[in-house]
Specification:
This protein is α+β, with helices and mostly antiparallel strands. Helix content is about 35%, strand content about 30%.
Length: about 300
């Protein structure tokens, strides 16, 4: 029987990101604060029983289907359920690729969630989250119900944080280019080896985690948050300094690079302030810079 579902896949921003040591599995341990935001990809997912797995994806992607996390999520679900499925998926992309906003990971999570529901919910939330860990580090967060969370491990350890301040608005600037996570980590590793000594032990992680959770009780203009990648990329890409300066001049409460780039955002008191800032930014930067306005 043919089954279809529409589902939204939210973007995320990093409010804080500290990269720790590289693990034996090739991933890095991190300490981060993730926040789902009001920017979405829209997916339409159809599944039907088949003799063998197949997945057809329609959308504005710049790489083959087999390299798409949507395809990989569909494949792993079909493999684990042990009933071959044929997927037809349409994805309307609103989250720029390679922007650090988690669009690919969120799309994969949405695919798993929809496939599970359409197949009659053979997996519990916990089982589905475990399945998602095989695909990527950010995906478990998008499987979780929390809107804001402290993230540790390689991304799979999620501690929800109660955050009721939903009246803020965001201005997000995508500078017209993407940054490969792999390349960003290589640059960061070089920077860390040259300039810093990374402290990575359970006591340090616990102390920093508690500090971050306490900071979330403060308004954004009092946050003492940062992103390790910003330290590296601001020197390499001068456009970030210009974006940051313009956001600050526009009365942003807080600004930061998200993920390993390339998007940069500012948090504003309300929609009116954010719209004014977005208009100002649109005059300051070329059309290749995508300026997005959404709820925090």
């Amino acid at each position: 029987m043919l089954k279809q579902m529409q589902i939204q896949a939210p973007a995320k921003i990093n409010l804080f990101l500290k990269v720790l040591k590289r693990r034996e599995d090739g991933y890095h341990n991190i300490i981060s604060l993730f926040r789902k935001i009001g920017l979405y990809d829209n997916l339409s997912i159809t599944i039907e029983p088949a003799a063998f797995f197949s997945c057809t994806i329609s959308g504005s992607f710049i790489f083959p289907d087999e390299d798409n996390l949507i395809w990989k999520a569909a494949e792993i679900f079909s493999h684990h359920i042990q009933h071959p499925l044929s997927f037809t998926i349409t994805c309307k992309k609103n989250i720029p690729e390679g922007s650090g906003l988690g669009g690919g990971s969120s799309d994969a999570a949405a695919t798993l969630i929809a496939a599970n529901e359409l197949a009659g919910s053979p997996y519990s939330k916990y089982e589905l989250k475990s399945l998602s860990e095989e695909l990527g580090s950010d995906i478990p967060f998008f499987m979780d119900d929390s809107s804001t969370a402290l993230i540790t491990g390689r991304g799979e350890i999620i501690r929800p944080i109660l955050n009721t301040d939903n009246n803020y608005w965001l201005v997000i600037v995508y500078p017209g280019f993407n940054i490969s996570s792999g390349e960003a980590y290589k640059r960061l590793n070089t920077y860390n080896d040259s300039y810093t000594k990374i402290i990575d032990n359970s006591k340090h992680v616990t102390m920093l985690s508690e500090f971050l959770c306490s900071q979330m009780l403060q308004p954004p203009d009092l946050w003492e948050f940062g992103n390790d990648f910003e330290k590296v990329l601001l020197d390499e890409y001068p456009v970030y300094k210009a974006i940051k300066e313009q956001l600050v001049r526009s009365d942003a409460l807080f600004t930061l690079l998200t993920g390993s780039g390339s998007a940069y955002y500012g948090i504003f008191e309300n929609k009116t302030a954010a719209k004014k800032a977005a208009t100002s930014l649109s005059f300051q930067f070329p059309a290749s810079h995508q300026i997005m306005l959404c709820q925090y």
